[in-house]
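Section 5: illustrative case.
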């Protein structure tokens, strides 16, 4: 597979003090060894625990070309949000069979997630916003059809570290978990 992008991809490397030697990890190895990888100050421990607790490791090990949206620790500061992450929420963080790099992302085009099925339909949309001299990229999850646990609605999250290549696709670290509609319209507008 060849992807033409307008930016240089920084290879994923281990931090100098690491005793783990990880080369070309898949998305689950990325989650597993994230403390040993050079991903800046970002940590994904809470999300990794949820993936393991709900036995969703296989989604992150599946061969192919997928897009993985992984929330960082700061997104778990809300007291109720971590308890709301279940199997379907984890599915809503994966765009299967499509590798989406931010520079070439189909902005404004809703993409189906692994949580797009009969009883629950979750889409992800990429968009960017000019902020002075820089451009910020965001993802929006939209739950079109909810169920008794997952309310229909929209969740917005900034991509805090983009385009991390892994063996089975690309990882984007995001500010907060998607799919969990835990704010009302007034709170959403204040953010």
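Designed sequence:
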């Amino acid at each position: 597979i060849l992807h033409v992008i307008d930016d240089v991809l920084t290879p994923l490397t281990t931090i100098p003090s690491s005793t783990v030697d990880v080369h070309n990890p898949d998305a689950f190895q990325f989650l597993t060894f994230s403390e040993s990888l050079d991903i800046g100050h970002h940590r994904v421990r809470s999300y990794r625990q949820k993936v393991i607790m709900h036995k969703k490791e296989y989604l992150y090990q599946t061969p192919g070309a997928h897009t993985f949206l992984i929330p960082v620790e700061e997104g778990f500061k809300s007291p109720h949000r971590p308890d709301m992450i279940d199997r379907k929420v984890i599915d809503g963080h994966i765009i299967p069979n499509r590798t989406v790099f931010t520079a070439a992302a189909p902005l404004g085009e809703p993409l189906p997630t692994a949580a797009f099925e009969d009883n629950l339909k979750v889409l992800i949309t990429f968009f960017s916003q000019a902020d002075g001299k820089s451009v910020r990229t965001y993802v929006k999850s939209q739950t079109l059809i909810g169920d008794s646990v997952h309310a229909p609605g929209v969740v917005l999250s900034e991509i805090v570290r983009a385009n991390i290549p892994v063996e089975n696709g690309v990882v984007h670290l995001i500010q907060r978990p998607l799919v969990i509609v835990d704010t009302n319209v007034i709170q959403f507008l204040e953010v």
